Amino acid sequence: MRIVVAGATGTIGRRIGEELRRRGHEVVPLSRGLGVDVSTGAGLDTAMAGADAVVDALNIETLSGRRAAKFFTTCARQLTAAAQKVGVSRIVCVSIAGAANPQVHRLFGYYRGKAAQERAYADADVDTTIVLSTQWFELMDDVVRRASLGPVTVLPTMRMAPLTAAGAAEFVVDEIEDSRAGDRCIAVKGPEEMTTLEVVRRILDARGEMSGRRPKVLRELPYLGRATANGGLIPEEATVDPTTLEEWLRQDPPR
Ligand SMILES: NC(=O)c1ccc[n+]([C@@H]2O[C@H](COP(=O)([O-])OP(=O)(O)OC[C@H]3O[C@@H](n4cnc5c(N)ncnc54)[C@H](OP(=O)(O)O)[C@@H]3O)[C@@H](O)[C@H]2O)c1
After folding, report:
1. pLDDT tens-digit profile of 192-219?
2. d(C-alpha 251, C-alpha 166), whole Å
């Protein structure tokens, strides 16, 4: 198949591209760095012509709900409009398990943006799969960076079932290869449940630093709300990727 990967240079987009190529598919990578800005739509029709499916693995780094919603809905509309125009019948969008739940996204604008993205795809006339993934181990460096001031790191309490980004990418590619039509939401999660503090402590124990930091004071507080702290990010029904944090930490280099 010929698959367009929007966000092809990102954490998951890169892995989705690698997995697609490993399975013998042709990949059309899109990112601003590669010359295509999905939010303006310039060049999209040409890039998408002849594709069998499109993956939305785009991202914006922001805490603003308004900015996130604008980015994700604009990009979803551009991708669905181009898909309809050139006859691409299928979109797979990478999203976050639990983010669409108002109790979970109440205190986190970025998640409200993801909820808006999911609604934009639900309203579109192109068959779309929303892949609801739990947090990736690879995300934890960013979480530590954002939650640190000097030597003090105060993490948001998130009860989660994290997995490797490579495991999430394989799940996305399995879905691309599944030829069933229609809209659906499917979820993937890791094999163990733990909180942000436990994950970060274990990564720090193994690696000594995260994001170039060795926090002297490391705490967690439920500042993203009770729902997030109490398991709102863990889907009840999900495919379980088997790689544990321990196994991922032993990978050298990490996949
Ligand atoms: N991190 C997690 O644990 C997690 C878990 C579940 C789901 N997700 C979701 O997975 C998705 C991908 O996240 P990620 O962490 O892999 O992203 P990322 O590493 O931040 O990469 C984002 C990608 O999007 C591209 N991009 C951004 N704006 C663009 C634009 N206007 N036009 C074209 N390309 C653009 C970037 O390239 P350029 O900058 O060159 O444009 C890059 O390739 C997000 O929607 C996120 O919410 C993340």
Report:
1. 999 999 999 999 999 999 999 999 999 9
2. 12
Lining residues, ligand 1, CB within 6 Å: 6-13, 30-33, 36-39, 57-59, 94-96, 114, 133, 135-136, 139
- 51 vs 46: CA distance, rounded Å: 10
Containing H/E element for 121? helix 109-123
Average pLDDT over residues 91-105: 97
Structure tokens at 129: 């799969």
CA of 62 to the centre of ligand 1 (A): 12
3-class SS at 181?
coil
- Give domain status of residue 137, yes or no: yes
Q: Decide: 114 and 96 in contact? Cβ < 8 Å.
A: yes
Structural domain of residue 24, as residue ranges? 2-250
Alpha-carbon distance of 218 to 195, in angstroms, equals: 13
Rg from Cα positions in the chain? 18
Q: Whose CA is nearest to atom 1 of ligand 1?
A: 139
Structure tokens given for 52: 């069998």
CA distances from 61 to 8, 91, 134 (A): 16, 22, 18
Phi-psi group of 199: left, alpha or beta (phi > 0 → left; psi -120 to 50 → alpha; rest → beta)? alpha
Domain annotation covers residue 255 = no
Please name the residue whose Cα sits nearest to atom 5 of ligand 1.
135
The CATH number that applies at residue 229 is 3.40.50.720
pLDDT in tens, 20-54: 999 999 999 999 999 999 999 989 999 999 999 99
The two tokens of residue 167 are: 């495991």
Into how many domains does the chain fold?
1
